[in-house]
Design goal:
about 190 residues, Rossmann fold, four-stranded parallel sheet, 4 strands, about 30% helix, globular
Length: about 190
């Protein structure tokens, strides 16, 4: 006598965990200026980020796994941004939304960070000034595809880390160039020629 098993799906637990992670993102919005308005519009009914499982915007870093940095970040805000990023549990991802968060935008000054990827890892970049909500939704979809392809159920990829894997310092910039207090070497566009 044969045993029938209706509605059975066989898969690896790692694939199942990645599917769940990808479809249940909890964003931590770090929004400033005009990109923040576009981020709010993404959560509104016209664009509805809830269709992609990312509607649970939390303002507690310990409950989030996706940070959306929207808008310009100044040097005084950078320690706060880094602290929020460090308080988020693994696995975590980051979307840099807008020209200001990605490259400093039109603000080529000493006070504005010329790209947050110099201080924290970024998974997706959303270009534009300000970017449309559709662009943010596309970056969420692309990030979901990336999440589905990586990661394990028990976090073996995190156990393999032996050292800090953040942004590396730029050895081409001499130490005597920096005159402001703190480490602002990565935020300046310096011609060494």
């Amino acid at each position: 006598m044969a045993v029938e098993l209706p509605d059975v799906v066989l898969t690896k637990l790692d694939h199942l965990a990645n599917w769940v992670r990808a479809n249940s993102l909890w964003p931590m919005p770090f929004a400033t200026a005009c990109c923040g308005i576009e981020l709010m519009a993404t959560g509104a009914s016209k664009h509805d980020i809830a269709r992609f499982g990312a509607e649970v915007m939390r303002f507690s870093p310990r409950q989030c796994d996706l940070m959306i940095v929207a808008g310009r970040v100044v040097m005084k805000m950078l320690p706060v941004l880094q602290r929020i990023w460090q308080q988020m549990p693994e696995p975590k991802w980051c979307i840099s939304m807008g020209a200001c968060a990605s490259s400093g935008g039109v603000f080529d000054t000493y006070a504005v960070v010329q790209g947050i990827d110099r201080f924290m890892p970024v998974d997706m970049y959303v270009p534009g000034c300000p970017p449309r909500p559709e662009q943010l939704l596309q970056s969420v979809i692309d990030l979901q595809e990336k999440i589905k392809k990586t990661g394990t159920l028990m976090g073996r990829e995190f156990a393999q880390r032996t050292a800090y894997e953040g942004p590396k310092t730029n050895a081409a910039i001499p130490e005597d160039v920096v005159v402001a207090p703190g480490d602002y070497t990565k935020s300046r566009r310096i011609s060494l020629n």
